[in-house]
Amino acid sequence: MSQAQKKAFRSIGHHLDPVVTVSENGLSEGVLAELERALRDHELVKIKLALPEREDRAAMLEALVAESDAELVQKIGKVALFYRHNPKVNPKLSNIKRFEEHHGRR
C-alpha cells in the first residue's frame, strides 16, 4: 500500500465509527466472524481495542492482522484502522467507494 493510499484511507477512516470491538475476552469466534463480515462488506473498518495495557493492544493487533489477512492502516490509542481489498464489493457498502469523491481522490 502506497503512502498516498494510506493518507486517503486515514482521511476516510476519520469519519468512521468502530464496527468491531475487541475486549479482554480476546479473539472469540464471534469477533473474528464480525471482523470478516465487516472487511468483506466495507473494505475499510475501524476497530476498537478495549484493552487497558498498551502491550496487550499491540499483541492483539498483530493477532488481528494475522487472522484477518488485512493491512493495518493506522493505530491511534485504542482504535485501529484496517483495510482489505474486496474485488466483488457492493459499492453502496464499501467505505472506499462511498467516500472516494469526498477526499480528493477524483
From TrEMBL:
It comes from Halomonas organivorans. Residues 1-95 form the CRM domain. This is RNA-binding protein. Coiled coil: none annotated. The keyword RNA-binding applies. GO terms for molecular function: RNA binding. It holds the Pfam family CRS1_YhbY. InterPro entries: RNA-binding_CRM (IPR001890), RNA-binding_domain (IPR051925), RNA-binding_YhbY (IPR017924), YhbY-like_sf (IPR035920). SMART domains: CRS1_YhbY (SM01103). Keywords: RNA-binding. Gene3D superfamilies: YhbY-like (3.30.110.60). SUPFAM superfamilies: YhbY-like.
